[in-house]
Each structure stands twice: as structure tokens, then as C-alpha cells.
Amino acid sequence: MHGSLQQILQHAWVGWAFGLAMGLAVATPLAFLNHIRCAKGADNSITREQLEKQQQIKLLCGDAKALADLAIQRHLSDAVFFQRLQTQPCYAVLSPYLSDEFRRLLAQDPMAEDGRAALANACLQEIERLECGLANTPPR
Fold first, then answer.
1. pLDDT in tens, 53-77
2. Are 106 and 118 in contact (CB under 8 A)?
3. pLDDT at residue 128 greater than cutoff 60
4. How many CB atoms neighbour CB 74 within 10 A?
């Protein structure tokens, strides 16, 4: 019985060593190819700060979209939505990236109309436009 246990352990170690060798044999070329692909696609003029800024803008876009979604779901008036939007950190950071058309919409007196979620819907469209622009252009 001692001999069969020794054979089982030997086979287990051989199987483990063979599996490790095969894993390394497959993973090494894949890692190398991925490194080459990333190096070709990388723009060396992009700094770490620019990438972090782009990531921050993407996260803040998510915050603005969540705020607009909640305003639509809760049937908030444009005035209430605009007040809440202005208090959010995402508004201050994203405002330079907003289109002129959306800025004109924000400049209108939200109290003049009893619009329900019109501004929130426009905000969602504007944020989606901004996200598409970020996806299609390198960060600055």
C-alpha cells in the first residue's frame, strides 16, 4: 500500500508540474502579444494626469446621469432638478464640456415653465454626447 501511495503522489506532482509548464507556455506568448498590441495603440503624448482627468470626467458623467435618471423617475420639476444639479460636484467639473445648446437651456428660467423632466432628459442626452466624445477622442 505504501508503494501505491508513493506512485499516486509522484503522478500528482508530475501532473501539477506539467500543468504549470503548459500554463506558462500559453500565458507567456499571450502576455507578450498583449504588450505589443498595447504598445502600438498607446499614444505616448498622453500623460498620467490627462488619463486621470479623463477617468474623473467619466465617473462624474455617471453621477450626472444618475441624478438625471432619479429626477425623471421622481417626476421632479426642471427647477428642482436644476437646483440639485448645481449643488453637485459633477456640475462644476463638467460645465466646461457642455455644449452651447445645453448651456442656453440651462440659462432659461426653469421657473417660467412647469416642465417635468425636460431638463433632466436634455441632461441625459448631453452627458451621453459627452461620453461619446470622450470615447472617440484622446484626453487633453
1. 888 999 999 999 999 999 999 988 8
2. no
3. yes
4. 12
The three-class DSSP label of residue 89 is helix
DSSP assignment, residue 45?
A: T
- pTM score, whole prediction: 0.59
Q: Which three cell numbers stand for residue 1?
A: 500500500
What count of other Cβ atoms lies within 10 Å of the Cβ of residue 75? 10
The grid coordinates listed for 60 are 462624474
Cβ atoms of residues 138 and 43 within 8 Å: yes
Q: Name every residue whose Cβ is closer than 8 Å to that of residue 99 and which is 6 or more positions away in sequence.
A: 126, 129
Cell numbers placing 71: 429626477
Alpha carbons 27 and 19: distance in angstroms, whole number: 12
Distant-in-sequence contacts of 35-39, Cβ < 8 A, 24+ apart: none
